[in-house]
Design goal:
- This protein is mainly alpha-helical.
- The chain has one domain.
- It is built from 3 helices and 2 strands.
- The protein has a two-stranded antiparallel sheet with strand order 1-2.
- Strand 1 and strand 2 form a beta hairpin.
- It starts with a strand and ends with a helix.
């Protein structure tokens, strides 16, 4: 289990198997090639439904909108910190 907290205070937990999930890798490769419609699938495969909803609420603004760029910033930080934790 990988646990961490982003710089904005979002606490997350990832099962070890998530970072070795081939289907997640497939989605990441497609997103990297410009298939941005798969970003929501990628976030759910990484975090699961419950944490995805917590993340959306974490970045939700005063008007009730969820910033896509803030979600992506958080996800990027989760990937980076997970890589650092796994390598330590």
């Amino acid at each position: 289990m990988i646990k961490g907290t982003t710089t904005t205070g979002f606490e997350f937990e990832l099962e070890d198997e998530v970072l070795d999930d081939y289907e997640l890798l497939e989605v990441l490769c497609k997103v990297d090639k410009g298939e941005y419609n798969l970003v929501t699938e990628m976030v759910e495969k990484l975090l699961g439904e419950e944490q995805k909803e917590r993340l959306k609420n974490h970045v939700r603004n005063i008007c009730g909108k969820v910033s896509a760029s803030k979600v992506m910033d958080e996800v990027a930080e989760i990937f980076q910190s997970s890589k650092e934790i796994k390598n330590s």
